[in-house]
Amino acid sequence: GLGKPTLVLREVTERPEGLTAGVLKLVGTNFDTILNESVRLLENPAAYDAMAKAANPFGDGHAGERIAQAIINFID
How many CB atoms are closer than 10 A to CB 68? Predict the structure, then answer.
């Protein structure tokens, strides 16, 4: 992942794989819930680290570079 916990401020997400992997937490739009989850991550290093170190199910962030290189190789 990006190495940072991500709180999703929505009631639903189209990215359930992020929830399953532990890199995202769906917290909804309730102010108190958002505040409580934010404080929990800031005050609980174990909770923060668990999300920060979870494997990113969306890839490594370099797909665009690989695609561009594949296109260049194909054209050449």
Answer: 10
DSSP run (H or E) holding 39 = helix 31-43
Question: With respect to CATH, is domain 6-75 assigned 3.40.50.10490?
Answer: no
SS3 60: coil
Which tokens is 26 given?
A: 């769906």
Handedness of CA 57, 41, 29, 11 (dihedral sign): positive
**What CA–CA distance (Å, rounded) separates 56 from 1?**
4
Give per-10-residue mean pLDDT for the chain (76 aa): 87 91 95 98 96 86 94 95
Q: Which two tokens stand for residue 8?
A: 């999703």
